UniProtKB/TrEMBL annotation:
Record protein name field: Aldehyde dehydrogenase
Keywords for the protein's UniProt record, in alphabetical order: Oxidoreductase
Transmembrane segments: none
PANTHER family cross-referenced by the UniProt entry: ALDEHYDE DEHYDROGENASE (PTHR43570), ALDEHYDE DEHYDROGENASE TYPE III, ISOFORM Q (PTHR43570:SF16)
Active site: 207
Keyword Oxidoreductase set for record: yes
Family designation: Belongs to the aldehyde dehydrogenase family.
Top-rank lineage group of the source organism: Bacteria
Coiled-coil stretches noted in the UniProt entry, renumbered to this chain: none
Lineage: Bacteria, Pseudomonadati, Bacteroidota, Flavobacteriia, Flavobacteriales
Domain Aldehyde dehydrogenase: 18-423
């Protein structure tokens, strides 16, 4: 690891990644490799937790292709020098900002969308002109192996290298000096990464999680709401960082809401054979999730089988804020349903929790929409939709507070892996004596006047 990092630093310091043409060629090469190896990638992820080729393309690979296409199309603009206004105190001169790569970057991917959450930040890092050391999650081992083989057999390790392993390897990596660390995962591990980075004052982007709330008001379009909500909740068997974690539904429509949810789940027929459902990633998480299911509050579902790591799409009713399932992020196919009558009261409850990664609002009332958006802080969200905000690369994706630090996707990702170097350039044909000694009252008066004009 240490030698690889040293090699990458030499490669970077020799300005190999500074050329835009180098970056574009690397991005196009990555896309070609992904496309040519789709079948291998599909087989690997199916072996790990039965994700279908349909879901692998729609949830993961298609987003990566789009990221690469957008980066290659707009890279020249993103990397261009940005002219800015110069103040009068510095007359005559010009000011501009130069985007430059940070250097040697470490990207630690997550297991729930192992391709998308490993390669998306890597695409941004390449576009910005960095070298990359990628550590995919070890839980989906076949996926990790396929990522390592794809990259390590086709890229110069001094530029792009994959290192596999678990906690020991990750710990060793975090003890090294990087110019940027990008981590996707849980809040507890995010804190460990942040502490390790602090030793070297390394800038960090943390994409974490949290209990993302959903609010369903009495004037929503109920059938459409339920259809979109059920799809987003049970996609990837609920193992999605921006999945709706729990739902507050207005008391007046609660029973109809539950009935529609049950109907929609049955119609969707979630199972491995249909290719629209996946396994829980491992037995440890399966056991954790099963222990969260209060049998007395099951409205629908609840069946499970640890042999094939299956948990049926489950809805819990009459859930209270103090219940065990409301303490931490669920990250599985269990949906707690709580009711409310007073919107302001549940906003207070949501705000008492750590700031969530996402929030979803289903309503046709503009006043309600504005109130929630104005009063609740969260990373990203949607109105009358869920999860789909991630598919728009013009929307920066990231958390706030405990749900994360920083954002990426599209130009936001380029900025995350760049430093913006500010430059003041002054000619030699004129030199004002205002700043030089000896000082005088008239000089101070002129300076104060100029400063007033600027502000």
């Amino acid at each position: 690891m240490e030698q690889t990092i040293r090699n990458q630093r030499v490669f970077f310091n020799n300005n190999n990644t500074k050329s835009l043409s180098f970056r574009v060629l690397a991005l196009k090469k990555l896309k070609r490799l992904l496309q040519e190896n789709e079948e291998i990638l599909n087989n690997a992820i199916y072996k790990d937790f039965k994700k279908s080729s349909f879901d692998n393309y729609t949830n993961e690979l298609s987003l990566l292709y789009k990221d690469i296409d957008e980066a290659t199309k707009h890279l020249k603009k993103w990397a261009s020098i940005k002219k800015v206004t110069t103040n009068l105190v510095n007359f005559p001169s010009k000011s501009y900002i130069i985007p430059e790569p940070l250097g040697v970057t470490l990207i630690i991917g997550a297991w729930n969308y192992p391709y998308q959450l490993s390669f998306a930040p890597a695409i941004a890092a390449i576009a910005a002109g960095n070298t990359i050391l990628l550590k995919p999650s070890e839980l989906p081992i076949n996926t990790s192996n396929s990522i390592a083989k794809l990259i390590n057999e086709n890229f110069d390790p001094s530029f792009f290298k994959v290192i596999e392993g678990g906690i020991p390897e990750t710990t060793t990596l975090l003890n090294q000096k990087f110019d940027k660390i990008f981590f996707t995962g849980s809040v507890p591990v995010g804190k460990i990464v942040y502490q390790a980075a602090a030793k070297n004052l390394t800038p960090v982007t943390l994409e974490l999680g949290g209990k993302s709330p959903t609010i369903v008001t009495e004037n929503c379009d109920l059938k459409t709401t339920v259809r979109r909500l059920m799809w987003s909740k049970y996609l990837n068997a609920g193992q999605t960082c921006i999945a709706p974690d729990y739902v507050y539904v207005h008391e007046t429509i609660k029973e109809n809401f539950l009935k529609e949810c049950k109907k929609e789940i049955k119609a969707s027929n979630y199972n491995f054979e249909n290719g629209n459902y996946v396994q829980i990633i491992d037995e440890k998480n399966h056991t954790r999730l099963v222990n969260l299911i209060d049998k007395e509050k099951i409205y629908f579902g609840g069946k499970h089988n640890i042999t094939n790591r299956y948990i049926e799409p489950t809805i819990l009713k009459n859930v209270k804020d103090e219940d065990e399932i409301m303490k931490d992020e669920i990250f599985g196919p269990i949906l707690p349903v709580l009711s409310y009558t007073n919107l302001s009261e549940i906003i207070i409850k949501i705000k008492e929790r750590p700031k969530p990664l996402s929030c979803y609002i289903f309503t046709n009332d503009n006043k309600t929409r504005k109130k929630i958006l104005n009063e609740i802080s969260f990373g990203s969200g949607a109105i009358n939709e869920a999860i789909m905000q991630i598919s728009n690369s013009n929307l920066p994706f990231g958390g706030v507070g405990q749900s994360g630090i920083g954002s990426y996707h599209g130009e936001s990702g380029f900025k995350t892996f760049s430093h913006y170097k500010s430059i003041l350039e002054k000619p030699n044909w004129l030199e004002l004596n205002l700043k030089y000694f000896p000082h005088s009252k008239i000089k101070l008066k002129i300076i104060k006047f100029l400063m007033k004009l600027e502000f």
